[in-house]
């Protein structure tokens, strides 16, 4: 994308910086305490952001900078945008979607929760009768990018958060994930960690079609980074990503090895099945520093064979791919932990 990178990710409220906030209006309201970070950003919320040029550590979610590469005629049904509420009217909310000649309109009946002035909202474009006002809905995952757009698709037409039907390659060429076709020659990649957990053990079972969400767009890359994880595709449902089956940092649990990556000393685990016998949508991983005897470990595959069970302890959470970071180290299994839980109001 022009001017740097676009990426869709989870931006927790406690990690927001003033220079990465949605727009000047938001900053002004924040200064006079008419809005708070806690009300605008909640744990599990998907927030498209842009990495600014010449500074890989500075981000922005200002719509005018996010979509500076888009023209109004590229706003097609199914495209997903970040809008900032400019005003709340009787029939809905008027949104700033980053274009001077076009505004978004979010009808009251299309809001998945009440909105206030200054709030950033991720929305999906719906068919409109006028070119100056774009009808949108915050129930993003209820539809995909329109068929016409898919037939004439170009890489720089897509935005993070857009949902699209993809066709996986018939024969996976690598074990790290699945290459997919989106239409009109545009291709993408779904890493194994972004596949539904139930097919990660055998990626040949992904089927002939897969519903994916755009996670990352990069100007000089021929591929889109996508996710097919059901909890991530359900963009408007923050509750799908705000907790990890009730597990907290410090909890102990027994996990089963489902995959290993010897080159990076990565071990992937499945969690215990749910009460109804289903495989959880949340999985677990462990890095070299968290593996038992990590300084002496040789062959990961022999130490952690597929199907073996290990006592693990929760160390952290990865929200974007719905994964728990665990350790098998004996010293950490015995160590006393102080844990905390993030509460959404």
Automatic annotation (TrEMBL):
Q: Which domain of life is it from?
A: Eukaryota
Q: Which PROSITE patterns match?
A: S1 (PS50126)
Where the record annotates domain S1 motif, the positions are 78-139, 156-229
Recorded hits in InterPro entries, A to Z, give: NA-bd_OB-fold (IPR012340), Rrp5 (IPR045209), S1_domain (IPR003029)
| Biological process according to GO | rRNA processing
Any one Gene Ontology molecular-function term assigned to this protein's record: RNA binding
GO cellular component term of the entry, any: small-subunit processome
Could you tell me which PANTHER family the record lists for this protein?
A: PROGRAMMED CELL DEATH PROTEIN 11 PRE-RRNA PROCESSING PROTEIN RRP5 (PTHR23270), PROTEIN RRP5 HOMOLOG (PTHR23270:SF10)
Query: Which protein is depicted?
Result: S1 motif domain-containing protein
Give the species this sequence originates from.
Heligmosomoides polygyrus (Parasitic roundworm)
């Amino acid at each position: 994308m022009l001017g740097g990178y676009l990426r869709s990710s989870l931006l927790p409220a406690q990690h927001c910086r003033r220079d990465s906030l949605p727009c000047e209006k938001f900053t002004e309201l924040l200064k006079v305490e008419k809005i708070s970070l806690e009300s605008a950003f909640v744990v599990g919320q998907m927030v498209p952001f842009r990495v600014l040029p010449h500074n890989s550590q500075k981000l922005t979610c200002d719509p005018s900078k996010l979509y500076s590469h888009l023209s109004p005629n590229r706003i097609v049904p199914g495209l997903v945008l970040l809008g900032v509420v400019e005003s709340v009217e009787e029939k809905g909310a008027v949104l700033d979607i980053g274009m001077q000649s076009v505004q978004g309109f979010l009808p009251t009946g299309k809001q998945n929760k009440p909105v206030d002035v200054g709030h950033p909202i991720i929305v999906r474009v719906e068919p409109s009768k006028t070119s100056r006002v774009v009808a949108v809905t915050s129930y993003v995952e209820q539809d995909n990018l329109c068929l016409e757009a898919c037939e004439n698709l170009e890489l720089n037409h897509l935005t993070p958060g857009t949902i699209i039907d993809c066709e996986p390659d018939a024969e996976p060429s690598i074990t790290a994930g699945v290459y997919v076709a989106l239409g009109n020659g545009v291709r993408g990649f779904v890493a194994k960690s972004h596949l539904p957990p139930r097919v990660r053990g055998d990626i040949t079972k992904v089927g002939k079609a897969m519903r994916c969400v755009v996670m990352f767009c990069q100007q000089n890359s021929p591929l889109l980074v996508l996710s097919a994880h059901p909890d991530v595709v359900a963009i408007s449902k923050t509750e799908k990503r705000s907790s990890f089956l009730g597990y907290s940092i410090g909890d102990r649990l027994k996990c089963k090895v489902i995959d290993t990556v010897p080159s990076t000393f990565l071990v992937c685990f499945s969690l215990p099945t749910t009460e109804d016998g289903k495989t959880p949508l949340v999985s677990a991983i462990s890095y070299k520093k968290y593996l038992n005897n990590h300084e002496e470990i040789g062959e990961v595959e022999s130490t952690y064979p597929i199907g073996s069970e290990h006592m693990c302890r929760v160390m952290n959470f990865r929200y974007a791919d719905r994964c728990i970071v665990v350790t098998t180290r004996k010293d950490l299994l015995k160590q006393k932990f102080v844990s905390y839980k993030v509460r959404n109001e």
